[in-house]
Design goal:
- This is SEL1-like repeat protein.
- InterPro entries: Sel1-like (IPR006597), Sel1_AlgK (IPR050767), TPR-like_helical_dom_sf (IPR011990).
- By secondary structure, the chain is mainly alpha-helical.
- The protein is built from eleven helices and two strands, in the order αααααααααααββ.
């Protein structure tokens, strides 16, 4: 699309927003969804011409109604701008959900946050977890998604598998934060979440195996509990916990 060429520019040519706007306008008159969405953004930001929020809304609405997810996500933001439009949160949520249903990453991340904050009816924390998981492979959202997922599990889950998954996520998140100065402020939060997850894991394991005390992944007989006196279990033998896994892949770790 020629509008993109002038909007983005090249190594040897600066962006020309006026010409980009002209080309987007021509394509928008042919009901091209992406051109409508881009033109809406230019009207909103005043790029290549005067700022016009009414036209921004009209262009974005046409693109959103045609099913273009980027426009649906943008329309969600426009509906939430109380200074420009009446704060229509139900319509904003409608368009956000529509974009998320088409796997728009930013929309999925935003919708997960609303669900986690209990601002979406008839949606569960499991729905939020699933949306966060789908954002793990989106580079600009990965750290936020890992952090939010782990925090949500730390607050609401008692499931051992979910707790372990969340602990792996927060460790990966902390590792990636170390290499990204923009997120260094989140490191104390990572430590807090990791501590909560560990404590919950220990409590869950203690409930499942009351005669064993678990601490930071290592197990030792609890005081007053009977120690195991049966035959020695080999690495490749079925684990004595009864889960069916080999000992080396289960309680030996």
């Amino acid at each position: 699309m020629m509008g993109d060429f002038f909007f983005n520019g090249t190594e040897h040519l600066d962006s020309d927003y006026e010409r980009a706007r002209e080309h987007y306008q021509e394509a928008a008159e042919q009901s091209h969804p992406r051109a409508l969405a881009q033109l809406g953004r230019m009207h909103e930001l005043g790029l290549g011409g005067p700022k016009n929020l009414k036209k921004a809304f009209e262009c974005s609405l046409k693109a959103a109604e045609s099913g273009f997810p980027q426009a649906q996500y943008h329309l969600h933001a426009l509906h939430r701008q109380g200074d420009a439009f009446v704060g229509d949160h139900s319509t904003a949520l409608h368009w956000l959900t529509a974009a998320a249903d088409q796997r728009h990453p930013d929309a999925m991340m935003a919708l997960a946050g609303l669900i986690a904050d209990k601002k979406v009816a008839n949606r569960s924390f499991a729905d939020a977890q699933h949306l966060y998981e789908q954002c793990f492979n989106t580079p600009h959202l990965r750290i936020r998604a890992l952090y939010a997922y782990a925090n949500l599990v730390a607050i609401h889950s008692e499931d051992l598998l979910e707790l372990e998954s969340a602990r792996n996520c927060i460790l990966q998140c902390a590792e990636e934060i170390q290499a990204n100065p923009d997120y260094h402020h989140s490191l104390p939060g990572c430590n807090r979440i990791h501590s909560v997850l560990l404590n919950k894991q220990e409590a869950a394991m203690s409930r499942e195996f009351p005669h064993v005390r678990f601490r930071f992944g290592a197990a030792e007989p609890a005081q007053g509990a009977l120690a195991y006196t049966g035959p020695k279990v080999g690495r490749n033998d079925p684990c004595s916990c009864g889960k069916g896994s080999k000992y080396k892949h289960c309680c030996m770790r």
